[in-house]
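Before going further, learn to read the protein records used in this course. The integers have meaning only within a learned vocabulary of local backbone shapes. The record below shows the convention in full.
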Amino acid sequence: MLDFLIQLITTPAVMLGLVALVGLLIQRKNAADVTKGTLKTILGVLILSAGAGVIVQYLSPFATIFTEGFHLTGVVPFDEAVIGALSEKVPEIARNGSLILALGFVTNIILARFSPYKYIFLTGHMLWIMSGALAWAFYDLGYSTVQAVLWGSMIQGIACVLFPALAQPIMRKITGSSDIGYGHFTTAGVVLSAGVGKLVGNPKKSTEDMKMPKSLEFFKDTAVSISCVMVLIYLISVLMAGPEFVKTISDGQNWIVFAIVQGLGFAAGVLILLQGVRMFLGEIVPAFRGIAQKLVPGATPALDCPVVFAFAPNALIIGFLSSIVGMVIGMLVSRTFGEVVPLPSIIGGFFTGGIAGIFGNALGGRRGAIVSGVIYGLVLTIPVALFFPMYGLETYGVTGIALLLSDALIVLSGVKLLDSLHILPIVVPVIIVALIALGVIRKSQKQGKSKTESV
């Protein structure tokens, strides 16, 4: 039963379809509307996932070519691979991680119900990564299964409400409402980067309002601009890597043709993804209002990063390209002090470097998007090198890969610090109680204000 529930939670399309189903049933919609809303939510997520899969398919050879062309060596930041390898090698980590995921989701709902931070975190693979990382941390520190699951599920629930709350002021600027939150454990990194972008930019000069000569106005079309930029980036990369190397991964296809097809394939993936986002958001947000009204009043769904892409597609590409620059700089900096040199995460650069660009544009316009992307590229590399020696993945037989998510690195560092001070069993429950108490206080203040106004 537990395995069924865990697979349900970590299957995004099914989980979000169930969320839509529950929300529509609570609103007492008729059978036709419930069926339509549930199926279109699931199909939207599946289309989104298919688009993401196409993007990854066309980015993977790009990462290999980029590494060869610029003569880079080091560890690959890849969260899913780290947690997957640890779970495979240490069954206790896999078991504890599953329990933390399930009970952490329950904690999230409780905190959303009673604290002032009404966010329900719905990005399944992020929940899996964080719960696995917590299980790894507590195992490494010698905690028992009961202790690891107890403290881990509490910490996971806290993270699921606090990190979306941190990003929500920027999300409001981007979307123009509070209907959705940012449900991705890169929040600290993108918010920090956007904050730096704000210092140097002007939000009135948005990337989406860039004026172009009439002869180049076709670049305003998302499909055209992404295609041209990615084909150019691929051509530069294959030139640096050399035709002979490119042939080894292109099945003998001409290297220029390969670059063009890969760039256009990437653009096709983005367009598929954006279509899925539109369908998915069109159904999940109205359906979620039913849950917000009945089960968790005022709740906001915290969703995966692609839900933001359509709001600023130009900033998305600017953030992606800028983050690559930042990652290369960060890699060079890491060489001077780190035990490992993190390679640029091209996939992370697009999905979350793009978010840094969108966040940066919201706070600092065009210049903010560029600077935010570069800063986020540093966040994707330097902290990875600093954190890597803390737990020693190599002692588990895991080599060549490293944990990347900024929020996970912060949480695990906090666990390590609190454990070293012997105060973790005190601090974690205190945070839970404080969040609930704050919610009670704010609720009573609102009720008092309403009574005063009515008088």
Notes: The chain has a mean pLDDT of 87. The two ends are 53 Å apart (CA to CA). The CA atoms of residues 223 and 267 lie 6 Å apart. The chain has 16 helices and five strands.
